[in-house]
Amino acid sequence: MATLADVFRVLNDLRADGVIEQYAIGGAMAMVFWAEPTVTFDLDVFVFLPGTSSPIVSIEPLYTALRTRGFEVVAEHVMIHGTPVQFLVSPNELGDAAIETAAEQQLEGVSFRVMRPEYLCALWLQAGGAKRRERVEVLRQSGVVDETTLQRLLAQHVVSR
Amino acid sequence: MNTRAGRARPSEELVRRQQEAKARWRHEVARRSFREKVAVMLEMQKRLYPVLEKRRAMQSWQRPWSIDP
């Protein structure tokens, strides 16, 4: 059976082939990485897509590339080796910074990029909602958040605490 | 019968100890390997899915992942 490392290998291949410029794992799986297991049924992957002449980005070329590789697109998720992956185009400068500064890690010899805890917290606080605020607290209590960095990010991107 | 006003409450010291224990546990879990934590998450998916399925309509992609940790 495939493993999560196989899913990460596909992400790396997409980048090597120029289908995406860069990526970083975010969402609940990033919290699993930095803190503790939580239930999620999909894997959030934040991406930069190659530039086009249009100011509005289309995710269709990415879906096409994945279909070509044999992966099915289901309701804005792509089933990659049995794992529903949602590709999220970076929506703003905070998202850009989170992708750019992601930590490079290894799983079974496969490298992957995961957003750093401070950026996850800032993005969740920016998006708002009780569930996201709870995740911020879990990361903080896990001792993985650099508060100075987080406060700088919140001020820089005008995110209310 | 216990009224709210008369109900016994935990001491501040007990609450503090329990909060500290929770924080210690979170620190310990955070240091476990990613693979180990993914294994727990996959098990949670398997156990929670039947419960969630009874409560609400699940999307077609909302299934336990068919991968190994």
Quick rundown:
The complex is a heterodimer of chains A (161) and B (69). By secondary structure, chain A is α+β, with helices and mostly antiparallel strands.
Shape of chain A: globular
Q: What is the rounded Rg of chain B?
A: 19 Å
Determine the most extensive contact between two protein chains: A-B, 33 and 26 residues
Mean pLDDT of chain B: 89
Can you offer a commentary on this structure?
The complex is a heterodimer of chains A (161) and B (69). Chain A has 161 residues and is α+β, with helices and mostly antiparallel strands. Helices cover 44% and strands 21% of the residues of chain A. Chain A has helices at 4-16, 27-34, 60-68, 93-100, 117-127, 130-141, 147-156; strands spanning 22-25, 43-48, 72-74, 77-80, 83-89, 103-107, 110-114. Chain A has a 5-stranded mixed beta sheet with strand order 1-2-5-4-3. In chain A, strands 6-7 form a two-stranded antiparallel sheet. The longest helix of chain A has 13 residues, at 4-16. Chain A is globular and about 45 Å long. Chain A starts with a helix and ends in a 5-residue tail after the last helix. With 69 residues, chain B is mainly α. Chain B has a domain at 10-57. Chain B contains 2 helices and no strands. The model of chain B has no long low-confidence stretch (mean pLDDT 89). The interface between A and B is medium-sized, with 33 and 26 residues.
